[in-house]
């Protein structure tokens, strides 16, 4: 395993522990049941919801272009977004790697701009979103 992968796995385990307050197995195995109480949906719906929450400036921008963060800080926020939202979303295992990456990047911008409140607004909006099956092609 590369040093970066070890770092990424460690960050995910740490954030998961914060979210549920319980210890995780040392191997980093996740429970089979996602932690987020949101309906299954496709990645495009999650991405569109995040962009809507970010406002009109997100319509024609790239995620990294909306922040003044260094590449490393943006990558750290992306990992946080993956651990808090994507790793715990019931449909995310069925999304392609590109879809997961894009959703993580947009969610990182939401966290940078709106913090925990932004994540809560995202979850509330996703709970109101009609179910779309949740799985897209890989």
Radius of gyration: 14 Å
Quickly count the helices: 4
Distance from first to last alpha carbon: 24 Å
Helix content: 55-70%
Low-confidence stretches: 23-29, 134-138
Strand content: under 5%
Regarding quaternary structure, what we see is: single chain
Mind summarizing the main beta sheet? none
Tally of discrete structural domains: 1
What is the arithmetic mean of pLDDT?
80
H/E element string? Answer: HHHH
Q: What is the structural class? A: mainly alpha
Number of strands: 0
Tell me, briefly, the overall form.
Answer: globular
Can you give a write-up of this model?
The chain is an all-alpha fold. The protein has one domain. Helix content is 56%, strand content 0%. α2 (43-54) packs across α4 and α3 packs across α4 (97-127). The radius of gyration is 14 Å and the shape is globular. Residues 23-29 and 134-138 have low confidence and may be disordered.
Give the helices and strands, then pairings:
Elements: H1 3-20, H2 43-54, H3 71-86, H4 97-127
In a nutshell, what does this entry contain?
The protein is mainly α and 138 residues long. It has four helices and no strands.
For this entry, give a set of tags:
about 140 residues, mainly alpha
């Amino acid at each position: 395993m590369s040093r970066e992968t070890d770092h990424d796995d460690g960050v995910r385990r740490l954030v998961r522990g914060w979210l549920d307050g319980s210890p995780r197995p040392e191997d980093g195995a996740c429970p089979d049941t996602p932690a987020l109480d949101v309906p299954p949906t496709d990645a495009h719906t999650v991405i569109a919801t995040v962009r809507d929450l970010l406002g009109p400036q997100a319509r024609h921008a790239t995620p990294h272009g909306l922040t003044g963060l260094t590449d490393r800080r943006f990558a750290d926020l992306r990992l946080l977004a993956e651990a808090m939202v994507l790793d715990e979303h019931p449909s995310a295992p069925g999304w392609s790697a590109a879809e997961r990456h894009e959703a993580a990047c947009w969610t990182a911008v939401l966290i940078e701009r709106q913090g925990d409140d932004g994540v809560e607004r995202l979850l509330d909006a996703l709970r109101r979103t009609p179910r779309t099956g949740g799985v897209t092609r890989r």
